[in-house]
Amino acid sequence: MNPSANPPMKIGVALGSGSARGWAHIGVLKQLHAMGIEPHVVVGTSIGALVGGCYAAGKLQQLEDWVVSLGWRDVVSLLDVKLSGGLIEGRKVFQFFDEHMPDLKFEQLQKTFAAVATDLETGREIWLQHGHLAEAIRSSISLPGLFTPYKAQNGRFLVDGGLVNPVPVSLCRAMGADLVIAVNLNAEIVGKHLRNSRRPSDEFVEQTQDSGAEESTEQKQIRRAESDFFQKVSQLFSDGQRDTSANTESAPGVMEVVATSLNIMQDRITRSRMAGDPADLVITPRLAHIGLMEFYRAEEAIKEGENTVRLAERQLQNLLGEELHEAQ
Questions:
Q1: Torsion angle of alpha carbons 101, 106, 112, 113, nearest 10°?
Q2: Rounded-to-integer distance, Cα 217 and Cα 221, Å
Q3: Catalytic: which of 46, 139, 140, 142?
Q4: Are the CB atoms for 243 and 253 separated by under 8 Å?
């Protein structure tokens, strides 16, 4: 052994928050692997914790297979509505973990992993590195107003880590990463929900009408029923009927206000935290057009994640140097 040889660089990946945009993390991790880059440390906030946890457990392919199969109806079926503390309780979402990673603990993971959550009472940033993986991820994704807070074993209520650390570069460094690749999903998102204020039912009808496929009577009835259902759901989050006259600009609905406010918060906190905790490389998939709850658009998010890493290949080569060449 040569004592003067440099030790291998410890690579870390910080996966940021971004709700439905977070499926892009799958593409990022897949493309890094294709380029011969295997992170030693993986940390995540919110949806980044979900994808990162699956990756650390060696279950990324199973997660991808599941999310690309999700359609409108599947996403709605996962919404176990509970109007106490949040719209979604989250039990149905974590059926995937029950099936593929039952009772899996941090100590059993293939890679070093941690998730970020927020203590609802104190506002403190909580780093989750021990115990059951599913509980940590459930805590980290508890977006206020949408998911109910998660009650930890110590009695504290934990909510989304994106409230305090949307792209957890600082945690990645604290866990020993020499070089940090951050994935920021919050670029150019401010105001997007107001500019693209279309109802889910409108987009659903357009997609099915543009498909060009011949429909049976039964299929038409199903499509009409689904369209009616999504129209009713969208009306639940609006402040009454929109005035569509040319001379009147109607006020945004409740869901638009919530989504846009969350986007503003995420954008500002992300800028502030990353200014103080800069990453060595920031991967920024352009997914501002994907809405807060559009989890059925996984395929395009994953592709954008892959493409963004490809565009950063030269930067990765400059950062990793000989290690990347040896891996390839």
A1: 80
A2: 6
A3: 46
A4: no
Residue with token string 């998730």: 115
Q: Cα–Cα distance between 69 and 61 in angstroms, integer?
A: 13
Helix (H) or strand (E) holding 318: helix 313-320
252 DSSP 8-state letter: P
pTM of the model: 0.79
Report the C-alpha gap between 130 and 276 in whole angstroms: 27
Residues 146 and 246: beta-carbon distance below 8 Å: no
Residues 6 or more apart whose CB falls under 8 angstroms from that of 23 comprise 47, 51, 67, 295, 297, 298, 301, 302, 305
Is 267 marked active-site? Answer: no
Per-residue pLDDT tens for 130-160? 999 989 998 998 877 677 788 888 889 999 9
Cβ contact 272:46 at 8 Å? no
238 is catalytic: no
Residues in the chain: 328
Would you state the structure tokens that stand for residue 203, as one six-digit string? 């987009």
Tell me which of 19, 119, 139, 160 is the catalytic residue: 160
